[in-house]
Amino acid sequence: MRQVLRSCIPAAALLWALLAPGCGKSGSEPLPGDGGVVARDGGDGEDGGPVITPDAGGIEPGPIDAIIAAMPEGSWKELPDTQMADVCPQPYSSYPCEAVMIAWSGGAYDSLRDRLVVWGGGHDDSSYNNVFTFDLASMTWKRWTDLPTGMTGNSVTPVMRDKRVETCGLYPSVASLDIPDAGLGPSGYVRHELCDDPSISAQLDSQQPRSAHTYGNIAFSEATGRFYVLGSVGSYPSGQAGAPRVMGFDFATARWVRGANNPVLDYGASAADARGHLWYVGPRKLHEYDPVADAWTAHAPNGAGFYYAGAAVDTKRNVLALVREGATVSTYALNDAAKTHATVTTTGLSEPVGGAPGLAYSPVLDRFVAYPGGRRLAMLDLQTARWVELTGTGDDPGPPASNGTYGRFRYSPARNVFVVANSTRRNVFIWKPPTTAP
Protein backbone atom coordinates (compact mmCIF):
# COMPACT_ATOMS: atom_id res chain seq x y z
CA MET A 1 0.00 0.00 0.00
CA ARG A 2 1.26 3.45 -0.82
CA GLN A 3 1.63 5.99 1.91
CA VAL A 4 -0.54 9.08 2.03
CA LEU A 5 1.61 12.15 2.32
CA ARG A 6 -1.02 14.89 2.48
CA SER A 7 -1.19 18.45 4.76
CA CYS A 8 -29.94 -14.03 -22.74
CA ILE A 9 -33.52 -14.23 -21.43
CA PRO A 10 -36.26 -14.88 -24.04
CA ALA A 11 -38.98 -12.33 -24.67
CA ALA A 12 -41.68 -14.58 -23.21
CA ALA A 13 -40.10 -14.39 -19.78
CA LEU A 14 -40.30 -10.61 -19.73
CA LEU A 15 -43.84 -10.62 -21.05
CA TRP A 16 -44.87 -12.96 -18.23
CA ALA A 17 -43.31 -10.62 -15.72
CA LEU A 18 -45.19 -7.67 -17.19
CA LEU A 19 -48.56 -9.41 -17.10
CA ALA A 20 -48.15 -11.09 -13.69
CA PRO A 21 -50.05 -9.57 -10.46
CA GLY A 22 -17.07 8.95 1.66
CA CYS A 23 -10.84 14.22 4.60
CA GLY A 24 -7.83 12.29 3.45
CA LYS A 25 -5.99 9.70 5.45
CA SER A 26 -2.52 10.02 6.85
CA GLY A 27 0.37 7.76 7.68
CA SER A 28 -0.19 4.12 6.78
CA GLU A 29 -3.98 4.05 7.30
CA PRO A 30 -5.80 2.13 4.56
CA LEU A 31 -7.72 4.25 2.13
CA PRO A 32 -11.50 3.77 1.85
CA GLY A 33 -12.23 0.95 -0.55
CA ASP A 34 -8.74 -0.49 -0.13
CA GLY A 35 -9.48 -4.20 -0.23
CA GLY A 36 -6.08 -5.00 -1.65
CA VAL A 37 -5.03 -5.06 -5.25
CA VAL A 38 -7.24 -7.43 -7.22
CA ALA A 39 -5.77 -8.48 -10.56
CA ARG A 40 -7.93 -8.38 -13.62
CA ASP A 41 -7.98 -11.14 -16.24
CA GLY A 42 -4.55 -11.73 -17.70
CA GLY A 43 -3.49 -10.86 -21.21
CA ASP A 44 -3.34 -7.64 -23.12
CA GLY A 45 -6.14 -5.11 -23.22
CA GLU A 46 -8.73 -5.52 -25.93
CA ASP A 47 -7.09 -2.93 -28.13
CA GLY A 48 -3.61 -4.39 -27.68
CA GLY A 49 -2.68 -2.00 -24.91
CA PRO A 50 -1.15 -2.93 -21.56
CA VAL A 51 -3.03 -4.81 -18.88
CA ILE A 52 -4.75 -2.36 -16.56
CA THR A 53 -3.62 -2.88 -12.98
CA PRO A 54 -5.79 -1.71 -10.09
CA ASP A 55 -4.20 0.15 -7.22
CA ALA A 56 -4.91 0.68 -3.57
CA GLY A 57 -4.24 4.38 -3.71
CA GLY A 58 -2.29 6.96 -1.80
CA ILE A 59 -0.39 10.11 -2.67
CA GLU A 60 3.22 9.82 -3.75
CA PRO A 61 5.95 12.34 -4.51
CA GLY A 62 6.82 12.82 -8.16
CA PRO A 63 8.35 15.12 -10.75
CA ILE A 64 5.45 17.54 -10.38
CA ASP A 65 6.79 18.66 -7.01
CA ALA A 66 9.92 20.30 -8.41
CA ILE A 67 7.83 22.00 -11.07
CA ILE A 68 5.42 23.44 -8.51
CA ALA A 69 8.26 24.58 -6.28
CA ALA A 70 9.81 26.54 -9.16
CA MET A 71 6.55 28.23 -10.18
CA PRO A 72 5.94 31.84 -9.12
CA GLU A 73 2.75 32.39 -7.18
CA GLY A 74 -0.16 33.28 -9.44
CA SER A 75 1.35 31.56 -12.46
CA TRP A 76 0.12 28.94 -14.92
CA LYS A 77 2.29 26.03 -16.06
CA GLU A 78 1.77 23.74 -19.04
CA LEU A 79 2.71 20.16 -18.21
CA PRO A 80 4.53 18.65 -21.21
CA ASP A 81 3.39 15.46 -22.93
CA THR A 82 0.11 15.27 -21.02
CA GLN A 83 -2.51 14.83 -23.74
CA MET A 84 -5.28 12.41 -22.77
CA ALA A 85 -5.58 11.43 -26.44
CA ASP A 86 -2.44 9.33 -25.96
CA VAL A 87 -4.41 6.80 -23.91
CA CYS A 88 -7.71 6.82 -25.81
CA PRO A 89 -8.85 3.43 -27.16
CA GLN A 90 -7.29 2.15 -30.35
CA PRO A 91 -7.52 2.44 -33.29
CA TYR A 92 -7.37 6.12 -32.42
CA SER A 93 -10.29 8.19 -33.67
CA SER A 94 -10.04 11.89 -33.05
CA TYR A 95 -13.63 13.02 -32.52
CA PRO A 96 -14.98 10.34 -30.14
CA CYS A 97 -11.83 10.76 -28.07
CA GLU A 98 -12.14 14.54 -27.98
CA ALA A 99 -15.87 14.33 -27.22
CA VAL A 100 -15.11 12.68 -23.87
CA MET A 101 -14.39 16.26 -22.78
CA ILE A 102 -16.11 18.60 -25.22
CA ALA A 103 -19.55 16.91 -25.36
CA TRP A 104 -21.00 18.59 -22.25
CA SER A 105 -18.89 16.44 -19.98
CA GLY A 106 -16.93 17.06 -16.84
CA GLY A 107 -14.68 15.46 -14.28
CA ALA A 108 -14.05 14.87 -10.60
CA TYR A 109 -10.99 14.94 -8.33
CA ASP A 110 -9.66 11.94 -6.45
CA SER A 111 -8.21 13.84 -3.53
CA LEU A 112 -7.02 10.66 -1.81
CA ARG A 113 -4.67 9.85 -4.70
CA ASP A 114 -4.23 13.34 -6.14
CA ARG A 115 -5.60 12.82 -9.62
CA LEU A 116 -8.19 14.22 -11.97
CA VAL A 117 -10.89 11.75 -13.10
CA VAL A 118 -12.50 12.25 -16.53
CA TRP A 119 -15.57 10.37 -17.79
CA GLY A 120 -17.91 11.52 -20.54
CA GLY A 121 -19.01 11.44 -24.18
CA GLY A 122 -22.54 10.30 -24.97
CA HIS A 123 -25.28 11.08 -27.51
CA ASP A 124 -23.85 10.43 -30.99
CA ASP A 125 -20.63 12.19 -30.06
CA SER A 126 -18.81 9.33 -28.38
CA SER A 127 -19.51 5.75 -27.32
CA TYR A 128 -16.45 5.72 -25.05
CA ASN A 129 -17.18 4.74 -21.46
CA ASN A 130 -13.62 4.49 -20.21
CA VAL A 131 -12.50 5.86 -16.87
CA PHE A 132 -9.51 8.13 -17.40
CA THR A 133 -7.32 9.61 -14.69
CA PHE A 134 -4.53 12.16 -14.72
CA ASP A 135 -2.05 11.45 -11.93
CA LEU A 136 -0.60 14.75 -10.82
CA ALA A 137 2.54 13.35 -9.17
CA SER A 138 3.78 11.51 -12.26
CA MET A 139 2.00 13.79 -14.76
CA THR A 140 0.58 10.78 -16.62
CA TRP A 141 -2.80 9.74 -17.98
CA LYS A 142 -4.19 6.25 -17.43
CA ARG A 143 -7.16 4.46 -19.00
CA TRP A 144 -8.62 2.20 -16.30
CA THR A 145 -11.32 0.34 -18.22
CA ASP A 146 -11.70 -1.25 -21.65
CA LEU A 147 -14.56 -0.73 -24.07
CA PRO A 148 -17.29 -3.41 -24.30
CA THR A 149 -16.45 -6.55 -26.27
CA GLY A 150 -16.73 -5.83 -29.97
CA MET A 151 -16.36 -2.07 -29.62
CA THR A 152 -13.08 -0.42 -30.65
CA GLY A 153 -11.79 3.10 -30.77
CA ASN A 154 -13.35 3.65 -34.18
CA SER A 155 -16.18 1.12 -34.44
CA VAL A 156 -19.23 -0.19 -32.60
CA THR A 157 -21.40 -3.26 -33.08
CA PRO A 158 -25.06 -2.73 -34.08
CA VAL A 159 -26.35 -3.86 -30.68
CA MET A 160 -24.44 -1.06 -28.97
CA ARG A 161 -26.52 1.42 -30.98
CA ASP A 162 -29.83 -0.18 -29.96
CA LYS A 163 -31.39 2.73 -28.12
CA ARG A 164 -34.02 0.70 -26.27
CA VAL A 165 -31.84 0.04 -23.25
CA GLU A 166 -30.39 3.54 -22.91
CA THR A 167 -32.74 3.98 -19.97
CA CYS A 168 -30.94 1.18 -18.12
CA GLY A 169 -27.59 2.96 -18.24
CA LEU A 170 -25.59 -0.07 -19.41
CA TYR A 171 -24.27 -1.50 -22.66
CA PRO A 172 -25.59 -4.93 -23.80
CA SER A 173 -23.67 -8.12 -23.08
CA VAL A 174 -25.39 -10.01 -25.94
CA ALA A 175 -25.14 -9.85 -29.74
CA SER A 176 -28.79 -8.83 -30.08
CA LEU A 177 -31.44 -7.77 -27.61
CA ASP A 178 -34.62 -9.79 -26.99
CA ILE A 179 -37.15 -7.28 -25.65
CA PRO A 180 -40.91 -7.43 -26.38
CA ASP A 181 -42.73 -4.24 -27.24
CA ALA A 182 -44.74 -4.61 -24.03
CA GLY A 183 -41.59 -3.71 -22.12
CA LEU A 184 -41.13 -0.38 -23.89
CA GLY A 185 -42.47 3.03 -23.03
CA PRO A 186 -44.13 5.43 -25.49
CA SER A 187 -40.77 6.64 -26.83
CA GLY A 188 -39.45 3.16 -27.50
CA TYR A 189 -37.17 2.81 -24.47
CA VAL A 190 -37.29 0.15 -21.77
CA ARG A 191 -39.17 1.49 -18.79
CA HIS A 192 -36.86 2.30 -15.90
CA GLU A 193 -38.63 -0.02 -13.48
CA LEU A 194 -37.94 -3.03 -15.76
CA CYS A 195 -34.19 -2.54 -16.05
CA ASP A 196 -33.54 -4.75 -13.03
CA ASP A 197 -35.95 -7.48 -14.15
CA PRO A 198 -33.81 -10.60 -14.76
CA SER A 199 -35.10 -10.88 -18.31
CA ILE A 200 -33.57 -7.48 -19.06
CA SER A 201 -30.59 -7.35 -16.72
CA ALA A 202 -29.27 -10.69 -18.01
CA GLN A 203 -28.76 -9.01 -21.38
CA LEU A 204 -26.74 -6.13 -19.95
CA ASP A 205 -23.14 -5.84 -18.76
CA SER A 206 -22.98 -4.49 -15.22
CA GLN A 207 -19.33 -3.50 -15.78
CA GLN A 208 -20.05 -1.40 -18.86
CA PRO A 209 -21.96 1.78 -18.03
CA ARG A 210 -23.30 3.49 -21.12
CA SER A 211 -21.52 6.62 -22.31
CA ALA A 212 -23.37 9.86 -21.59
CA HIS A 213 -23.00 13.62 -21.41
CA THR A 214 -21.96 13.98 -17.80
CA TYR A 215 -22.45 17.70 -17.08
CA GLY A 216 -22.07 17.82 -13.28
CA ASN A 217 -23.42 14.29 -12.71
CA ILE A 218 -20.08 12.83 -11.62
CA ALA A 219 -18.25 13.16 -8.32
CA PHE A 220 -15.64 11.59 -6.02
CA SER A 221 -16.18 10.65 -2.37
CA GLU A 222 -13.35 10.49 0.17
CA ALA A 223 -15.63 8.35 2.38
CA THR A 224 -15.42 5.38 0.00
CA GLY A 225 -12.50 6.31 -2.24
CA ARG A 226 -14.75 5.81 -5.25
CA PHE A 227 -15.64 7.85 -8.33
CA TYR A 228 -19.41 8.10 -8.91
CA VAL A 229 -21.70 8.48 -11.90
CA LEU A 230 -24.87 9.88 -10.33
CA GLY A 231 -27.26 8.84 -13.09
CA SER A 232 -26.94 9.73 -16.75
CA VAL A 233 -28.52 11.88 -19.43
CA GLY A 234 -27.72 12.42 -23.10
CA SER A 235 -26.88 8.74 -23.40
CA TYR A 236 -25.26 7.10 -26.42
CA PRO A 237 -26.47 7.01 -29.15
CA SER A 238 -29.85 8.78 -29.26
CA GLY A 239 -29.16 11.32 -26.54
CA GLN A 240 -32.89 11.47 -25.78
CA ALA A 241 -32.97 9.20 -22.75
CA GLY A 242 -31.27 8.87 -19.43
CA ALA A 243 -30.91 6.43 -16.57
CA PRO A 244 -31.16 6.88 -12.78
CA ARG A 245 -28.55 4.14 -12.22
CA VAL A 246 -25.76 5.19 -9.88
CA MET A 247 -22.37 3.55 -10.39
CA GLY A 248 -19.27 3.83 -8.24
CA PHE A 249 -15.85 2.98 -9.65
CA ASP A 250 -13.61 1.28 -7.08
CA PHE A 251 -9.97 1.96 -7.89
CA ALA A 252 -8.84 -0.80 -5.52
CA THR A 253 -10.53 -3.46 -7.64
CA ALA A 254 -10.90 -1.58 -10.95
CA ARG A 255 -14.59 -2.54 -10.98
CA TRP A 256 -17.90 -0.72 -10.97
CA VAL A 257 -20.23 -1.08 -7.97
CA ARG A 258 -23.98 -0.47 -8.21
CA GLY A 259 -25.47 2.24 -6.04
CA ALA A 260 -29.01 3.27 -5.13
CA ASN A 261 -30.80 4.95 -8.02
CA ASN A 262 -30.77 8.72 -8.14
CA PRO A 263 -34.35 9.88 -7.38
CA VAL A 264 -33.86 12.82 -9.76
CA LEU A 265 -33.17 12.02 -13.40
CA ASP A 266 -31.88 15.18 -15.00
CA TYR A 267 -28.93 17.30 -15.96
CA GLY A 268 -27.36 18.04 -12.62
CA ALA A 269 -24.62 19.70 -10.67
CA SER A 270 -22.90 17.97 -7.77
CA ALA A 271 -20.21 18.43 -5.16
CA ALA A 272 -18.79 16.52 -2.20
CA ASP A 273 -18.64 17.81 1.36
CA ALA A 274 -15.92 17.12 3.91
CA ARG A 275 -17.62 13.88 5.03
CA GLY A 276 -17.70 12.52 1.49
CA HIS A 277 -21.45 12.97 1.13
CA LEU A 278 -22.43 13.96 -2.41
CA TRP A 279 -24.83 16.84 -2.90
CA TYR A 280 -26.82 16.80 -6.14
CA VAL A 281 -28.87 19.67 -7.55
CA GLY A 282 -31.39 18.69 -10.23
CA PRO A 283 -34.47 20.61 -11.42
CA ARG A 284 -34.83 22.94 -8.43
CA LYS A 285 -34.31 20.05 -6.02
CA LEU A 286 -31.45 19.27 -3.67
CA HIS A 287 -30.63 15.65 -2.81
CA GLU A 288 -27.91 14.17 -0.60
CA TYR A 289 -26.23 10.85 -1.32
CA ASP A 290 -24.46 9.04 1.51
CA PRO A 291 -22.19 6.58 -0.36
CA VAL A 292 -21.37 4.55 2.75
CA ALA A 293 -25.03 3.94 3.63
CA ASP A 294 -25.89 3.93 -0.10
CA ALA A 295 -28.91 6.12 0.61
CA TRP A 296 -30.45 9.26 -0.85
CA THR A 297 -32.17 11.97 1.17
CA ALA A 298 -34.39 14.65 -0.39
CA HIS A 299 -33.92 18.25 0.75
CA ALA A 300 -35.01 21.74 -0.33
CA PRO A 301 -37.54 21.21 -3.14
CA ASN A 302 -37.51 24.85 -4.32
CA GLY A 303 -34.00 25.84 -5.19
CA ALA A 304 -31.56 26.40 -8.02
CA GLY A 305 -32.92 25.54 -11.44
CA PHE A 306 -29.93 25.75 -13.76
CA TYR A 307 -27.54 22.97 -14.58
CA TYR A 308 -24.88 24.57 -16.76
CA ALA A 309 -23.02 25.33 -13.59
CA GLY A 310 -19.88 24.79 -11.60
CA ALA A 311 -20.46 23.48 -8.08
CA ALA A 312 -18.28 23.25 -4.97
CA VAL A 313 -18.61 23.12 -1.18
CA ASP A 314 -17.01 25.55 1.26
CA THR A 315 -15.75 22.84 3.60
CA LYS A 316 -15.16 25.28 6.47
CA ARG A 317 -18.76 26.52 6.64
CA ASN A 318 -20.43 23.60 4.82
CA VAL A 319 -22.03 25.79 2.17
CA LEU A 320 -22.74 24.50 -1.34
CA ALA A 321 -22.31 27.10 -4.09
CA LEU A 322 -23.36 26.90 -7.72
CA VAL A 323 -22.00 29.38 -10.25
CA ARG A 324 -23.13 29.90 -13.81
CA GLU A 325 -22.43 33.42 -15.04
CA GLY A 326 -21.32 34.73 -11.66
CA ALA A 327 -23.48 37.83 -11.20
CA THR A 328 -25.56 35.71 -8.85
CA VAL A 329 -24.54 32.62 -6.92
CA SER A 330 -26.95 29.96 -5.66
CA THR A 331 -26.08 28.63 -2.22
CA TYR A 332 -27.34 25.97 0.18
CA ALA A 333 -26.52 26.10 3.89
CA LEU A 334 -25.88 22.40 4.40
CA ASN A 335 -25.59 22.68 8.19
CA ASP A 336 -29.15 24.02 8.42
CA ALA A 337 -31.86 21.44 8.96
CA ALA A 338 -33.85 23.03 6.13
CA LYS A 339 -30.76 23.24 3.90
CA THR A 340 -31.67 26.87 3.26
CA HIS A 341 -31.33 28.03 -0.33
CA ALA A 342 -30.33 31.58 -1.20
CA THR A 343 -29.54 33.55 -4.31
CA VAL A 344 -26.62 35.85 -3.62
CA THR A 345 -26.05 38.92 -5.77
CA THR A 346 -22.34 39.53 -6.19
CA THR A 347 -20.05 42.39 -7.18
CA GLY A 348 -16.60 42.61 -8.73
CA LEU A 349 -16.97 40.93 -12.11
CA SER A 350 -16.22 42.97 -15.23
CA GLU A 351 -17.61 40.18 -17.41
CA PRO A 352 -19.36 36.85 -16.76
CA VAL A 353 -17.33 33.79 -15.87
CA GLY A 354 -19.22 31.93 -18.62
CA GLY A 355 -21.69 29.08 -18.71
CA ALA A 356 -20.61 25.91 -16.93
CA PRO A 357 -17.32 27.30 -15.62
CA GLY A 358 -14.92 25.34 -13.52
CA LEU A 359 -15.44 25.98 -9.80
CA ALA A 360 -13.40 24.79 -6.84
CA TYR A 361 -12.94 25.78 -3.20
CA SER A 362 -9.56 26.28 -1.56
CA PRO A 363 -9.50 26.02 2.26
CA VAL A 364 -6.07 27.67 2.21
CA LEU A 365 -7.37 30.79 0.51
CA ASP A 366 -10.86 30.36 1.99
CA ARG A 367 -12.22 31.28 -1.42
CA PHE A 368 -14.17 29.77 -4.28
CA VAL A 369 -12.18 29.98 -7.51
CA ALA A 370 -13.98 30.09 -10.85
CA TYR A 371 -12.25 29.31 -14.13
CA PRO A 372 -13.83 30.67 -17.34
CA GLY A 373 -10.88 29.83 -19.61
CA GLY A 374 -7.50 31.06 -20.73
CA ARG A 375 -5.35 32.54 -17.95
CA ARG A 376 -8.36 34.25 -16.37
CA LEU A 377 -9.69 33.30 -12.94
CA ALA A 378 -12.00 34.87 -10.38
CA MET A 379 -11.96 34.41 -6.60
CA LEU A 380 -15.21 34.68 -4.63
CA ASP A 381 -15.40 35.66 -0.98
CA LEU A 382 -18.91 34.41 -0.27
CA GLN A 383 -18.99 36.24 3.07
CA THR A 384 -18.79 39.60 1.30
CA ALA A 385 -20.35 38.40 -1.99
CA ARG A 386 -17.40 39.93 -3.82
CA TRP A 387 -15.37 38.58 -6.71
CA VAL A 388 -11.73 39.48 -7.35
CA GLU A 389 -10.63 38.93 -10.94
CA LEU A 390 -7.16 37.62 -11.68
CA THR A 391 -5.09 36.98 -14.78
CA GLY A 392 -2.43 34.40 -14.14
CA THR A 393 1.06 34.82 -15.48
CA GLY A 394 3.01 32.18 -17.37
CA ASP A 395 1.65 29.68 -19.86
CA ASP A 396 -1.81 30.09 -21.39
CA PRO A 397 -4.22 27.11 -21.09
CA GLY A 398 -6.18 28.48 -24.06
CA PRO A 399 -9.94 28.53 -24.48
CA PRO A 400 -12.19 26.22 -22.49
CA ALA A 401 -14.15 23.40 -24.10
CA SER A 402 -16.95 25.05 -26.06
CA ASN A 403 -19.72 23.31 -24.10
CA GLY A 404 -18.33 23.98 -20.66
CA THR A 405 -15.57 23.07 -18.22
CA TYR A 406 -17.69 21.62 -15.41
CA GLY A 407 -15.52 19.48 -13.12
CA ARG A 408 -12.36 19.41 -15.24
CA PHE A 409 -11.01 22.36 -13.24
CA ARG A 410 -10.18 21.12 -9.76
CA TYR A 411 -8.20 21.94 -6.63
CA SER A 412 -5.48 19.61 -5.37
CA PRO A 413 -5.48 19.87 -1.56
CA ALA A 414 -2.33 17.75 -1.35
CA ARG A 415 -0.27 20.18 -3.43
CA ASN A 416 -2.27 23.40 -3.19
CA VAL A 417 -2.56 23.91 -6.94
CA PHE A 418 -5.45 23.97 -9.38
CA VAL A 419 -5.58 21.52 -12.31
CA VAL A 420 -7.42 21.97 -15.61
CA ALA A 421 -7.88 19.83 -18.73
CA ASN A 422 -9.58 21.68 -21.58
CA SER A 423 -9.07 19.21 -24.42
CA THR A 424 -7.88 15.65 -24.97
CA ARG A 425 -5.46 17.01 -27.59
CA ARG A 426 -3.97 19.72 -25.40
CA ASN A 427 -1.74 19.38 -22.40
CA VAL A 428 -2.91 19.65 -18.81
CA PHE A 429 -2.20 22.94 -17.01
CA ILE A 430 -1.81 23.81 -13.35
CA TRP A 431 -2.19 27.15 -11.58
CA LYS A 432 -0.30 27.98 -8.41
CA PRO A 433 -2.35 30.37 -6.28
CA PRO A 434 -0.96 33.17 -4.14
CA THR A 435 -0.26 32.47 -0.49
CA THR A 436 -3.13 34.69 0.61
CA ALA A 437 -6.28 35.78 -1.19
CA PRO A 438 -6.18 39.26 -2.72
UniProtKB/TrEMBL annotation:
Keywords recorded for this protein, A-Z: Signal
Source species, domain of life: Bacteria
InterPro entries from the UniProt entry: Kelch-typ_b-propeller
Region (Disordered): 29-48
Cross-referenced Gene3D superfamilies: Kelch-type beta propeller (2.120.10.80)
Signal peptide feature range: 1-22
The name this protein goes by in its record: Galactose oxidase
Organism for this UniProt entry: Corallococcus sicarius
